[in-house]
Amino acid sequence: MEWSPPPPIFPPLDLTNTLDAIAMQPSSTTSSVIDSASITNNSTSATSISTTPERTEEISEDGKMPDNKSLEAEVEEETETVEEGNKEEEEEEEEGEGSGKGDDPGDTNESDGESEQTRDTRILRDRARLQQNTPITPFTKKSITTAGVTTIVRKLRSSIKAPSSAPASRAADKTRRQSKRLSIIATGKLDTTTPAFSRGKRSHDVMTAGSKSANAKLQGNTSARSAADGTPLRSSKRARKHFSYNEDDDDESSATRDTSEALSTDSQTKQKKRKIWLNQGLYLGQGQDLDVRKRPGGKTKKRGKAGADRPAVLPLPMFTGLGVMDTTASCGHGLRATRSFAPRQIVVEYTGEIITQEESERRMIEDYKDNNNYYLMLFHQNMILDATRGSVARFVNHSCDPNCRMEKWLVDGKPRMALFAGDEGIEAGDELTYDYNFNWFTGVSQQACHCGAENCRGALGKRADGLQKKPEQSAKGKGKGKDKTRKKGVNGKGGKLVEAKKPTRGRPRKLVAQVQKSVIITPKRKHKRKPPPSPVTSSSPGSEDSLDPSSPSSPSSETSDHPTEASPSKKNALSLSEAARRRRTHDRAGRPRVTKTYKVNKTIRGGKGISHKSVTSKKAVSALKKKTYEKVLTTTTTTTTTTTVKTKSPSLSSSSSSPSLTSKSAGTVTTRATRRGLATPAAVENEVSSKLLEHAITTVLSATTGIDGLPADDSIVIVPALNTIQVAS
Ligand SMILES: C[S@@+](CC[C@H](N)C(=O)[O-])C[C@H]1O[C@@H](n2cnc3c(N)ncnc32)[C@H](O)[C@@H]1O
């Protein structure tokens, strides 16, 4: 790039200064100065000469100024004389202005008298200097002529334009300056005693808040150098500035390079332009002596390299402070908002590694076996998002009453996970929390929850057994602030949580899903076998009054315990009943059957206080279903006008909602079982109900009318849709 000259900085008449400028300034500058001088040369010379006759005469008289003195010296003398005179006049004017005597001509004369001695001294000094240092010696012995000034100036210009002198002098000057700086660095004459406030606010704050160890680490390099040299260093910022200056100057002279080589120790610790110390500074205040750039081997981490080069320690969250850590002492680190967020506004994306379930299991077993904090989340299509090395969102803690929610979005067709503000928004200073119930994924045993919310479920995410502790205080009524998107998942294989289904309305889907995938059953107690029921001897079947209230086989009892003697007119029915009873209570080989009653867990049917036993394998579940089906079909269900048959199966555990079959001589038999196909427990239930119903009706009719099988007339109306049979009285 071409160098553009600055405007002339010297007065046109000051050739002495011009000569000085030759050594200092680029040639073009000097040229312009000389040009100015030459343009005004005639008048200048005339002025100079006319204003300094006395001085010239005096010098001549003293013999101190030879006649053939150099033109340059002459010119310089003249110009300096003028300059001196001007300066003195200016000073006098200033003094005069100050004292009110500025207009007194006598002052000027007095001043002239005083300046003569000074002028003589200066002339002598300048002459000596010119003889020694002037680069224009060819002109020194030329005679003084006014017209020669122009020639001299022209020659001066040509000599100044010579390419060798100016750049060399510039480089030398630059080298001098750089060398001076480098020597300061080399000798360690920087000042670390600079007060903290002069380091800049950020640095000062960081240093103040930081731990002493980290503080020492931050200043490690400079301190070490300082200690080695025994001289204090300035702040690292200044030192780095010098180094960076050194790096940037590619055109530095060999002298500077030599100096740099002499600083070989420093060049090893050459600072990169990255503000590395800032990284450390950000983690100050965390109370850990941690260099996040260091790998276990001690080498500095290379950028963009993944895999085996991962640091052994995780960087701590950048935006947390002691406040968060204090308040969530039992939850580890957390995040606190430093600004407010509108309802449903995105807060931060949840990023990390996307791995397979197998890999996540491997990591849980091997890599994270000693961890207390887990960052795994079911992401998409059974892939796991491991945020152990992910965004800062991984530090968001769980709360059963959260102010955020984690949502999965498809962005450009790709799944992304992000934390959004809840329906009430977030105030600056709030701790960010969301409900891990969304799709928390760990293979570890359940972690206790310390969120402190009123409706705390007591555990993080879903309980390992797939059951959620029912909140003591219903979330109902709290309305806002609740995570409306909370999704109930189901417990999957091996105690791990599987992806949560989209929330469904109503109960059936949830029920079916749970029954199918996570049947939790517990044998309530062994059913005490009771004596087989006897045929009914109701005096007036079909009437409720015929029920024997004293009999244990009341409508509320499961079976009729009190057999009564059969009437001869009902022999067919009795034999049938006996045979049926026999079939139900004994297997084909004649061995007595064992009957069990199961009660299903409350989460399925809302029962209370039932102990659980998990049956998670599909095989066990299907075996159980089959067994239950068989059991129901073979259960003793001697149905009379006073008999109630109550069936219980894993899916029909709740007494309130389980279908009960109450057959009365002149009543209504109703079941709410819904046919869902033979594979479902509901289908089993329906099938059982139908068979029981059929059997009951047959039994009743046989007992009352002596007719086997269903009647062919309209006395019984079957309403299939409702599974309701109305028996006409
Ligand atoms: C995604 S991390 C959250 C950040 C974590 N607190 C930390 O310091 O790195 C999840 C872990 O935090 C802890 N945690 C989060 N919320 C919690 C809570 N409400 N109660 C107890 N521990 C909690 C658990 O150890 C959990 O495994």
TrEMBL record:
Biased composition (Acidic residues): 73-97, 105-115
Top-level taxonomic group: Eukaryota
Compositionally biased region (Basic and acidic residues): 54-72, 116-129, 464-475
Keyword S-adenosyl-L-methionine: yes
Keyword RNA-binding: no
Keywords associated with the record: Chromosome, Methyltransferase, Nucleus, S-adenosyl-L-methionine, Transferase
Region (Disordered): 27-271, 288-311, 464-612, 637-671
Protein name as catalogued: Uncharacterized protein
Species of provenance: Discina gigas
Source taxonomy: Eukaryota, Fungi, Dikarya, Ascomycota, Pezizomycotina
